[in-house]
Amino acid sequence: MKDKQIEQLIKAEKIRQTDGLELIPSENYVSSDVLKALGSVFTNKYSEGYPGRRYYGGQENTDQIEQIAIDRAKQLFGADHANVQPHSGAQANEAVYYAWCEPGDTILAMDLAHGGHLTHGASVTRSAREYNFIRYGIKDVETGEIDYEEIRQLALKHKPKIILAGFSAYPRELDYEKFAEIGNEIGAMLMADMSHIAGLIVGGVAKNPFDYGFHVITTTTHKTLRGPRGGLILSRGVVGNPLKKPEKTLENLPTLIDRAVFPGTQGGPHMHTIAAKAVAFGEALQPEFKDYAEQIVKNAKKLAEELQKRDFKLVTGGTNNHLILADVYNSFGIDGKEAEIAMDKIGLTLNANATPNDSLTRFRPSGIRLGTPAVTTRGAKEADMEKIAEWMKQAINHRDSEERLVKLRQEVKHFCQTLSAI
Ligand code: DSN
């Protein structure tokens, strides 16, 4: 590169990602083919519209790329329709709200403090100003149990237009059947934000909300799905012409969603990212992806077990998916930020996270959140989880000893050299 300053930082980041263990549950390592597609000449192209219906010329290749991405996404999730244009998960959620709701309409979603996502109506977001969000949470922090009767009562009282199931920090599986029963009882649209577990769904180790009557799934493409940073909306219904405004019916959701993405909430799609999504979806369709998804969950369960042996108190007492939420404040008397910093020093990257009903602040919460998608991509297996749990405990025990932390950093680095390259 001519720009040496940026080139040097790209190299430094590659070294950081190679020599450390990536435990943030929403991150992953893409394949070299995904990176190639991302860095391709499609970044030069404007393609407002959809395949076969664009507002600019020169679309003979973009149309094919987008159609391939759409077809693969539909196949992966068993959907009638896929919109591959959302720039990320936030835009995907925003577009679905815009497609189905009028300003002031009610949406029932999981509380951010209990594992929901910012875009599920946190008060600081734009959508919270536009729509009326009602929140449900975890009933029992020990088990992670959700009170579906409470959700039903909230739904009966507030008559939401959308019932949203999904999370960014919940280590258990949701009961989609119960959500569907409630949604059908009050006539709400059923939306699932599967950003964290999309790869587990397509890998067959997590349930697919479409199998329980959900109408829409949104997801990011860069977490367990292991694609480029981006968003995706899948729906059930009949695909129509987005140039014609349809009635707001469940059957018309695909067309309503296409119109809500473009021109409703976005301009030109990022065709280089769509090319990379197509590559990642192709990879996720391969039989090996199932093995990968299974190993993510095996690793997470083992890591949870090993952490518990070392006195980490886990929210919900374990995990059924790829992520673990540990309450370090109630385990060791330190806040999540202090734990995150200690881990960073030895090359373990994870994030401080609020626990349900957290008594500490959002920036210095009680918990840490970690997961196994990225280390599993590098080939880590159950036996390696014991080592990771031990390093985590050591980092906490010796957080005030720079000398000990430097030694631990060396051990982690040597271990990383035994894993596959990124
Ligand atoms: N930032 C993502 C996560 O870490 O879960 C969600 O947007």
TrEMBL record:
Ranges where the Serine hydroxymethyltransferase-like domain occurs: 2-392
Pathway membership, UniProt: One-carbon metabolism; tetrahydrofolate interconversion; Amino-acid biosynthesis; glycine biosynthesis; glycine from L-serine: step 1/1
Site (Plays an important role in substrate specificity): H222
Annotated compartments: Cytoplasm
GO biological process, one term: glycine biosynthetic process from serine
This enzyme's EC code(s): 2.1.2.1
Gene Ontology MF terms: glycine hydroxymethyltransferase activity; methyltransferase activity; pyridoxal phosphate binding
Keyword Transferase: yes
Record PTM N6-(pyridoxal phosphate)lysine, positions in chain: K223
Broad EC category: transferase
Assembly: Homodimer.
Protein name as catalogued: Serine hydroxymethyltransferase
Provenance organism: Candidatus Nanosynbacter lyticus
